[in-house]
Description:
alpha/beta; five-stranded mixed sheet; 6 helices; 20% strand
Amino acid sequence: MGPETAVGRKLAESGRTLAVAESCTGGLVGHMITNVPGSSAYFKGGVVAYGNEAKKRLLGVSAATLDRHGAVSAQTASKMAEGARKKLGADMALAITGIAGPGGGTPDKPVGTVFVAIADCRKVRTKTKKLSLKGTRKAIKKAAALSALNLLEKALA
């Protein structure tokens, strides 16, 4: 059983709903979640906010957050998750932003740097985690999606 199935089972059992906000994974997490039969019972939807304008307009990430911390940061991931949860009316939201490569990395944020955030209406603070992934663009995207779902599964435990 993959993490998307385990997440779905836990969401369904608890009666909670989920939204996603994705950047570097380009909709892969939403795709994985909707591969599970019955996911419409708990999955509200997702936003692929690849560019900064989409992050601002669709998810409410402030220009100040993006300017101060960058699109690939714990702060931006947190705001993306909070925005998706509120805009889609979900109990929880999962957000991912990162650098899948092969270009775009910097010494401070090399290719494979990914931030995942989980916003939960039951918690005051949004939980964030930094990942350092290796591999091709496709491998990084897949590892980011799987890691994010694994983190969500643990948060639901």
